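Re: beginner question about structure tokens

> Can someone show what the tokenized structure looks like for a real chain? I only ever see the sequence side.

Sure, here's an example I had lying around. Input first:
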Amino acid sequence: MSEKHTPLPWHVEHPYIKHAFSGGLPAIRGGQHDIADIRWNGNNEKWGEANARLIVRAVNAHDQLVGLLQDCRAFMGDEYRAAQSDNPLWGLDGVGARLYQQVRALLAELEASDV
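And the corresponding structure tokens:
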């Protein structure tokens, strides 16, 4: 994967950006680099903090999750080819076949986005 984003891991700092009404906004940082300050819509300041933490968890887990899906695709592909005609789990309507197709489709989407 080419480096097109701030190096990982990212983290949340709160409050990082001072705000006249709230005292501060949560900020997402990668090392010493500012990535984003998180604003919220409405009066629920905790949503801003929760949104920042969700973004950071997703970004930091991305590469590991893609690797896991790639391993699943390789394993399931071998199983699918070996058992698709003999095992009802891997037949066209089987759970294994559906999971394999979902893993392949999700990986195709993630790999095409070149994050």
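Each token stands for a local structural state, so reading them left to right follows the chain. The chain has one domain: 10-113.
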